[in-house]
Design brief:
Layout: H1 4-9, E1 13-17, E2 22-24, E3 32-38, E4 40-46, E5 52-59, E6 63-64, H2 67-71, E7 78-81, E8 85-91, H3 92-101, H4 103-129, H5 132-146, H6 159-166, H7 170-182, E9 187-189, E10 192-194
Antiparallel strand pairs: 1-8, 2-7, 3-6, 3-8, 4-5, 4-7, 9-10
Keywords: DNA-binding, Transcription, Transcription regulation
Pfam family, one: cNMP_binding
InterPro entries: cNMP-bd_dom, cNMP-bd_dom_sf, Env_Response_Regulators, HTH_CRP, RmlC-like_jellyroll, WH_DNA-bd_sf
Length: 195
C-alpha cells in the first residue's frame, strides 16, 4: 500500500506478532495506521454466542483498520495475527501528516477504502439475499479477481474461513462446496477448491 521507506521516514515502527496475538480490540480507540509487512491478519467480530464473522483478511503490503482514523471513532472489529506477522505501525498524527504531504498516497488510500466499501456492499447483499452456493462462489470469484484472475485459481482459505467470511456455518459451506463441484462450477483437487 504505502511505500515502507515513506512510512519509516515518518517514524513508523515495525512490530512483530506471533500467531494469535491481538493487534487491537473492538471498541478500542484508533491511534495508529497498520500495514502488513509479512504475514496475515484477520479483522473479525464475535456475536453473543461466540460465532465469528470475519470482516477482512489482510496480507503482505495491505493496510487495515484505517476507517476509524478518518472517522474518529473506535475500532468496529478486532484484529488478530493469523500467522507470525510483521506490521508497520504509524501514529495517527504522523499518518495524517504523510497524507497531507503525499497526495499520491492519499489518492491511493481513497481508492483502497472505496474498494473495501464496494466489497462490504456486495457482501451485505450476498448475506441477505442469496443461497449459500451463490455466497461461496461470490467470495471465491472476488478473491480470484483480487489475485489477478488466474485461469486455475486455488483458494487458500479453509472451509471455516469461507464460513466466517460469508456468515455461514462451516457445515453449510461444506455442502455448498460439494454442490458447486457437482454443478461443475469449481473443482476439488487435493482437498483444495479451484476455480
Amino acid at each position: 500500500m504505502i511505500n515502507e521507506t515513506i512510512l519509516l521516514d515518518y517514524e513508523a515502527e515495525v512490530i512483530e506478532y506471533i500467531t494469535g496475538d491481538v493487534i487491537f480490540s473492538e471498541n478500542q480507540r484508533a491511534l495508529f495506521y497498520f500495514q502488513v509487512q509479512h504475514g496475515e491478519v484477520k479483522m473479525y467480530n464475535l456475536n453473543e454466542d461466540g460465532k465469528e464473522f470475519v470482516q477482512g483478511m489482510f496480507k503482505d503490503g495491505e493496510s487495515f483498520g484505517e476507517p476509524p482514523l478518518f472517522g474518529d471513532f473506535k475500532y468496529p472489529a478486532s484484529a488478530i495475527a493469523i500467522s507470525d506477522v510483521s506490521i508497520i505501525k504509524l501514529g495517527k498524527t504522523a499518518f495524517f501528516a504523510l497524507l497531507k504531504e503525499h497526495f499520491d498516497v492519499h489518492s491511493q488510500m481513497t481508492a483502497t477504502l472505496s474498494r473495501r466499501l464496494s466489497y462490504k456492499a456486495m457482501m451485505m447483499k450476498e448475506i441477505s439475499v442469496y443461497p449459500p452456493e451463490h455466497r461461496v462462489l461470490t467470495i471465491i470469484d472476488f478473491l480470484k479477481q483480487r489475485d489477478g484472475n488466474p485461469v486455475d485459481y486455488q483458494v487458500e482459505l479453509t472451509r471455516q474461513q469461507i464460513a466466517d467470511l460469508t456468515g455461514l456455518r462451516v457445515e453449510t459451506v461444506i455442502r455448498a462446496v460439494k454442490q458447486l463441484e457437482e454443478d461443475e462450477k469449481i473443482k476439488i483437487i487435493n482437498r483444495k477448491i479451484h476455480r
